[in-house]
Amino acid sequence: MPRLLSRLAPPRALRDLSPDQTPRVTTMELFFDLVYVFTIVQLSHYLLDHASGLGALEFATLFAAVWWAWNYTAWAANWLDPDHPGGRVLMIVLMGCALAMAVAAPQAFAQRAGLFALAYVAMALIRAGYMALVFRGQAMGRNYAQLGGWSAISGLFWIAGALMPDMRLTLWVLAVLIDYAAPYIGFWLPGLGATPMASWPLKGLHLFERNQLIFIIALGESILLLGGYLAGHEIHPDTALAATVGFLLIVTIWWVYFVDLSRPGEHRFAHETDHASLARAGLAYAHGIAVCGAIVTAVAIEMIVAHPHDPAHAETAVVAFSGPSLFLLGCTVFHRVIAGRLRVLYPVAVAALAVWAGGALSLHLSGLALGAGILAIMIAMAALGHRRAG
Fold first, then answer.
1. Separation CA 200–CA 277 (nearest Å)
2. How confident is the model at residue 262 (pLDDT cuts 50, 70, 90)?
């Protein structure tokens, strides 16, 4: 058995970890990300079909699991060579688990809870176990063994939630909290202690590029939902106007992310040495919030385009406010971590979005007016931010 495991996870499956080398994003990593095109579609449709307080909490729980599964895989590929036969096998296995999660997502709180939980837990344990074998005898092997221990602990809650429908949401929220808290306490385990972030020799530019690519996929969901709706319905003048507002909102979010945030991110990762700490807060957590915001924005755009002249319902107003606001919250955390200062424009814009959404709801404004106001606030913020940066 040890000989078989050694063949499955040989040390040469690792990338070149020399200090002056930045790993390139491989086609295997891009192939793995294809699953998340489908996954994000599934998540956005879940929120569309469950636009309520409970539905939003369930959506957030599912997204947190999906994001963490992608995030940990992206970190693993920072060290693992995805073009090595062993690395390819691992990525394909993880891809299959991610696909199972996506298939189960629409009914994760119903008939397919077991499939979702098993796929997530299997993905976590297989990935951590493989990496511990690849790094056996090194500090990173110990790190991944402890990470695997925490994945097993959270896995108990995921499986228990799948088996107990009445407690499912509570147990899964606890599982998410365990998963997300583990890195901040260094995967501490009794008798073993914690693993300092300095012992994770991360290549930040590679991981930053991976996060940029997944954000593009999240924005692509807005295009898919918008285009899919227009392709299947009559395009009246009001529909075309609402679609234009939605399209410009997508462009504005792209502008804020890639023009306002990308350059400081690239500069910091190119000149700092403690990439692991920067990536933990700036990528694993902040980018997750921003990606979630992009998905929720896609849902808001479809809700507005589907009923442009109807008075905005509470669900539409909340979703339309939450999407851009979550995106800006993620940008705020990212900029604070990367640039070392608070970008005041972002929280000010969130406050303005809250006032506008509340006003549109109380005045019974149309969905089109709600979307136009949100677009105006986002454009004004992007223009001011670009001017100050310049």
1. 9
2. confident
